[in-house]
Design brief:
It is a single chain. By secondary structure, the protein is of the alpha/beta class. It is 39% helix and 20% strand. The protein is built from 16 helices and 21 strands. The termini are far apart. It comes from Shinella sedimenti. Keywords: Arabinose catabolism, ATP-binding, Carbohydrate metabolism, Kinase, Nucleotide-binding, Plasmid, Transferase. This is FGGY-family carbohydrate kinase.
Length: 503
């Protein structure tokens, strides 16, 4: 029997959980918030001190609820590309740049000009969210901070340093966000040199540890702060959504983890490298050896529905819930309407940040329920489009595990299953990242022989949800219209996006 303390650092706060391997269940959970600041349009920052305080608060609370004074291992997942800049002793030199911070848009575009073999792993360019464009921006615009920086790292690396006193990087984050050659297991200094940040290499954590690898024992002082009587092993984690692959047991090719929340992330693994243009990856060995990780996603999802309900319709939580129920009871009310879900651009398969949202077919007879239903359908069509393009690239998806806020919105959930047109497993656990980190830590201490075995043993319970045949047929007919409208409106949407940037 092993007990694992798991941490999941999300955008708005931290969740901690205590997991028992024998019973395959989370014994207790606790939460702690931290703030996000938006000093300028497109900027988003957090304080590493907030992460430290939340870790101690939620970690101690979860242990107390579980009645544990000892645990065998600890593992953490965080948002990806939330970048901390600090001294080697962990002292921050500035606020951390949150994953959604897009100040480095110009730098991200520049990365597309580099012709280097390692760039094929990310589809030829870096996203504005990633560590490398943010480092480029910092060196150009905050040279004082850059010159003083001894460590430039992910939030995950900062938390692991807080836990152990060791600076290490996760192979997952390095592979997916740093232009690290995870096939050869080495940094590629000439890439950073081409981007004008040759000195980034020396500032990154030099020891790269795979998911489920051992970092070090917890610092004695940290153990005491958490109320632990032992010094558990700290195992390497990774990106919050990606670690959820272990909790969903979609680690093998053919499986997809679909997390629907503020945005949507769809993750699949391949047995070998192949052309997945339009998506992020494939990243070799990002999660486990011998597999290639592919990241798909939609930028605006739950955020779009919340914006409609709150900002446009003026509904409170109860009113929003009633609207969801109204649409769920009559999903076909969107007939004759077509919306495009690009409220914040498109992640995949178009990788076009200048696309914008649209709503077509409106008449004076339409109601807000009709508009909400069309918006749900647009998000579902975006998801269907992702799977359609994956299929065209030769990527088969036989099993889908769905989790996140989408599970709490019956209209959105059923529309997505109908649009995908295949049975979906809906996770009962509302946080697969906590389960995934528990699986990674259990593998690290030998409770299971490897990550595959840990994922199979610790998979979160789920229930099957079937598509409605009539609605599935409707979505199948609507998808070509959605795709055609995107292409025809692209020039107009780009012009509008340009005017917005200049305003």
């Amino acid at each position: 029997m092993a007990h694992i303390l798991s941490f999941d650092f999300g955008t708005g706060g931290l969740r901690a959980g205590v997991y028992e391997t024998d019973r395959r269940q989370m014994l207790a959970q606790a939460e702690a918030p931290y703030a996000t600041h938006y000093p300028r349009a497109g900027w988003a920052e957090q304080s590493p001190a907030g992460w430290r305080a939340a870790l101690r608060m939620a970690g101690r609370a979860a242990l107390e609820k579980a009645g544990r004074r000892t645990v065998d291992a600890v593992c953490t997942a965080t948002t990806a590309s939330t970048v901390a800049i600090c001294r080697r002793d962990g002292t921050p030199l500035s606020p951390a740049l949150l994953w959604m911070d897009c100040r480095a848009e110009a730098e991200a575009r520049e990365t597309a000009s580099l012709d280097h073999p390692v760039m094929r792993y990310c589809g030829g360019s870096d996203a504005v969210e990633w560590l490398v464009p943010k480092a480029m921006w910092l060196k150009r615009n905050r040279r004082d901070i850059w010159d003083a920086a001894e460590v430039v790292c992910e939030a995950l690396d900062y938390v692991n340093f807080d836990l152990t006193g060791e600076w290490v990087g996760s192979r997952m984050n390095a592979a997916c966000k740093w232009n690290y050659d995870s096939a050869a297991g080495q940094f590629v200094p000439e890439v950073y040199e081409a981007f004008g940040i040759a000195d980034l290499t020396e500032r990154l954590p030099q020891r790269i540890v795979p998911v489920g690898g051992v970092i070090a024992p917890m610092r004695a002082a940290m153990a005491a702060e958490l109320g632990l009587e032992n010094r558990p092993i700290v195992a390497q984690g990774g990106i919050d959504a990606h670690i959820g692959i272990l909790g969903a047991d979609t680690i093998e090719p053919g499986g997809m983890l679909f997390i629907g929340g503020t945005s949507i992330v769809q993750l699949v693994q391949l047995a070998e490298e192949s052309d997945v243009s339009g998506f992020w990856g494939p990243y070799p060995n990002a999660l486990n050896d011998g597999r290639w990780l592919v990241e798909c996603g939609q930028v605006a999802a739950g955020s779009m529905l919340n914006w409609l309900a709150g900002e446009m319709f003026g509904l409170d939580a109860a009113g929003h819930a009633a609207l969801i129920a109204e649409v769920a009871a009559n999903p076909s009310r969107s007939e004759g309407l077509l919306a495009l879900d690009y409220m914040m651009g498109n992640r995949t398969p178009y990788r076009d940040a200048a696309l914008r949202g649209a709503l077509m077919g409106l008449t004076l007879g339409h109601t807000r329920a009709d508009v909400y239903a069309a918006s749900i359908d647009s998000i579902a069509l975006g998801s269907a489009n992702v799977l359609s393009v994956l299929k065209a690239r030769g990527v088969a998806v036989d099993r889908v595990m769905m989790a996140g806020g989408i599970v709490k919105n019956a209209a959105w959930l059923q529309a997505t299953v109908d649009a995908i047109g295949q049975p979906v497993q809906v996770a009962r656990e509302d946080n697969l990242s906590l389960v995934g980190t528990a699986a990674a830590a259990a593998a690290a201490i030998g409770a299971f022989p490897d990550l595959r075995a840990a994922a199979a043993a610790c998979v979160a319970p789920s229930k099957e949800l079937l598509p409605d045949p009539a609605r599935a047929e409707w979505f199948q007919k609507m998808l070509p219209l959605y795709q055609d409208a995107t292409e025809r409106l692209r020039p107009v949407l780009h012009q509008l996006a340009s005017r917005q940037r200049e305003a």
